[in-house]
Amino acid sequence: MPPSSLNARSRLRPLTAALLLGLAGTFATAAPVLEKEELKFGFIKLTDCAPLVIAKEKGYFEDEGLYVTLEAQANWKILLDRVITGELDGAHMLAGQPLAATIGFGTKAHVVTAFSMDLNGNAITVANSVWAEMLAADPALAATPTPRPVSAAALKPVVARAKAEGAPLKLGMVFPVSTHNYELRYWLAAGGIAPGYYTANDSTGTAEGDVLISVTPPPQMPATLAQGTIHGFCVGEPWNQQAVAKGIGVSVITDGEIWRNNPEKVFGVTAAWAAQNPKTHVAVVKALIRAAQWLDATPENRVEACRILARPEYVGADFQIIANSMTGTWAYAPGDKRPLPDFNIFFRHFATYPFYSDAVWYLTQMRRWGQIGEAKSDAWYHDTAASVYQPAIYREAAGALVAEGKLQASAIPATDGYKAPTAEFIDGMSYDGRAPNAYLRQFPIGHKD
After folding, report:
1. CA separation for the pair 342, 370 (Å, rounded)
2. Which of 67, 51, 52 has the alpha carbon at shortest distance from 13?
3. Please, what is the angle between helix 76-85 and helix 96-103, to 10°?
4. Residue 56: inside a domain, yes or no?
5. What is the pLDDT of residues 343-388, one digit of tens each?
6. Residue 208 — φ and ψ, nearest 5°?
7. Are 273 and 290 within one domain?
8. Structure pTM?
9. 175 and 308 share a domain?
């Protein structure tokens, strides 16, 4: 049967149900008329695309009258460009992408988000040869088990040796405005290593750096490490665990050890699309909230999600590699597998809520490393965050789910958009999203006001 016939049949199902209910006189209000029912969303082959995948596979999109196609994209730039041109209705995005596009770093476009896809989910992995040098520099790391978290201070002699030899250590991350870039830089700077700056004359972000940080697409990270093109990387899953399983690298630290329960990906659309499709946007967020809730509901759901994500049209990696992180464990190295239940959080701790303070943190890192070239007022940080992060849309979607009995009211945070200040960083620095400039002034390495 052709796809058009299938779509026609699937659209008849909710219509038939509604007619039956109407005849029985048992429903009081009609479902909202959506501006657009057939949608195409993009994603990158990472496990944190799971809310999109589960919303489709579990029928949550269809419950909202949406008929969604998910399409893997080659890299983050292509994904963003296709959302901006309208080839994609929306996408699984790096949290920094909507912010960077809106302020004009790289591609200029107003992109918004009303849904945060997860907390944590990344790690830093180094080549076996680099790990051997780190062990030599800090013998305490050779203890069994290795004490965690591992400071980049142990990498500092390796960086100094490579720099003295005229071949600086090369490290990979997935995109200039990715969490991975900022987490890698944060970890390095906390250990006394200068990661480099973006300047008006140097868009590589390596000016004055002790290392060379460059872009490598996520699925290519293990192979690029094995070839010796890079000596380490920061990436999401399943690519750290694949490097460990293949015996080509050691995962030195997870991002939850750099910043506990840090925000990761978002679901992004253009502001124009959101304005044109407000009911559709709410319906999409409703489906994604339900998917995130399902992902965190039971261990059995996580196992099922791993099997779905392992399919070639989604992440396309070995089930066991995906399950290493998705089911509450983490392999730092062969023989060093530990419980890590919070490596991927999709719903707990209000993971899906678009907090302004999350957006402000990304903006502080853009300023810290020169992607924002001049000092900005605290008010600018707030206003920029509020122009991109859309909690009102989230609250409308979540409120509808509460009314339908599909979500507990306690799952919606009582907040003005800002989380409480936290110092749960590897360097103990305190972050208050309401005071971004005071936050930046704490760091010995990085731009300030």
Report:
1. 31
2. 67
3. 60
4. yes
5. 999 999 999 999 999 999 999 999 999 999 999 999 999 999 999 9
6. 60, 20
7. yes
8. 0.92
9. no
